[in-house]
Amino acid sequence: MVNTKLKMKQKPLIIPIFIPQEGCRHRCVYCDQSTISGVSQPSWSPNKIREHVQGYLGCQHRHPVQLAFYGGSFTILPESRQRLLLESVQEFLQQGQIHSLRLSTRPDGIEDNNLRFLQTMGVETIELGAQSLNDRVLRASARGHSSKDTDEATRRLKKHGFEVGLQLMPGLPGDSRETFLRTVEKSIVLEPNFVRIYPTVVLSSTPLEHLFRSGRYKPLSLEQAVDWCKASKKRFDKASIPVIRMGLQPTTTLEKPGRIVAGPYHPAFGQLVNSSIWYEKISPALRKASLKSPRLEIHGPAKQLAEIRGHRNSNINGWLKELKLTSLETVASDQIEAGEFRVLAHRV
Ligand code: SF4
Asked: How far is the CA of 67 from the centre of ligand 1 (A)?
């Protein structure tokens, strides 16, 4: 059984191995895994995997270490391929250089026999590409599975003692703010150990590009995506479910001109959402303090000051203007716990 509490406290070093679209027998409307992952060829051999792992271990010294097979539908790969990939890393597990394995897959690719096999090979964490828990949205996105599959897969994985992550995609065809927030509520009921939220973007040469160009799909604006994700992040926070990523990882492949056709992509998307939450949270205290002085300070944990200030100081500038302040500084304090803050007013 995995000690999930301990695992979530100690953020592992993840060694990623992208196997884009390996095992995939679908064509979800939005998908171009090669572009998303920045990897073009699924050409992992045991030797290449070992070299890749040794390269990471040689220059990183964080603990614990988890190796992750991302980007494919691992559990529906032929058994021989699953075995070959997993056996390539067993020596690192046995020597204690890697502590566990993680993989991503589809909700309809979870079978008991396979789960037992994965456990014997050291897999502890499985991420499910749930994307939505609304069947109309799943059909419109050609996912080829239902919300019931995610429900059953999550329960089965938890019963076997796996740590479970759910990946969600707001803004898929047929989605709305209300539908997405219902997906969030249903996800909370499933009690995943963590979630990732990737607002839908239109990538070139995907069926979604065709839908977009023919006027049958309208992507979210950046503002809408931040608003939806902010509402969902607050709900997950309240339910104590960590949101470990919001927005696609920026890569040179993804950011090549022409790859992203439309949609709410931003290289610092997570920061936009978190900063927006801070803005809402700190504003009442600043408003009150601004009645005493136009010169204010916000004290917070050093690691969170960038989010408090906002992307390119957007929060600071917003407050200066809105509250007609003459100065607003942020000050690092090791006395203040993560997620907390204090506002101080200078004497006038
Ligand atoms: S999102 Fe996953 S299941 Fe869908 S086409 Fe891409 S790799 Fe296949």
From this structure: 21
Q: Which residues neighbour 42 within 8 Å (Cβ) at sequence distance 6 or greater? A: 19, 20, 21, 22, 72
Q: Indicate the burial class of 158 (C-beta count within 10 angstroms; 0-12, 13-18, 19 or more).
A: middle
4-266 architecture in CATH? Alpha-Beta Barrel (3.20)
Indicate if ligand 1 lies below 6 Å from the C-beta of 315.
no
The pTM (predicted TM-score) of the whole model is 0.91
Per-residue pLDDT tens for 277-307? 999 999 999 999 999 999 999 999 999 999 9
Ligand 1: residue of 18, 21, 105, 203 to mutate (most ligand atoms within 8 A of CB) is 21
- Tens-place pLDDT, residues 197-212: 999 999 999 999 999 9
Our answer on whether the CB atom of 104 is closer than 6 Å to any ligand 1 atom is: no
Question: Does 274-345 carry CATH code 3.40.1260.20?
Answer: yes
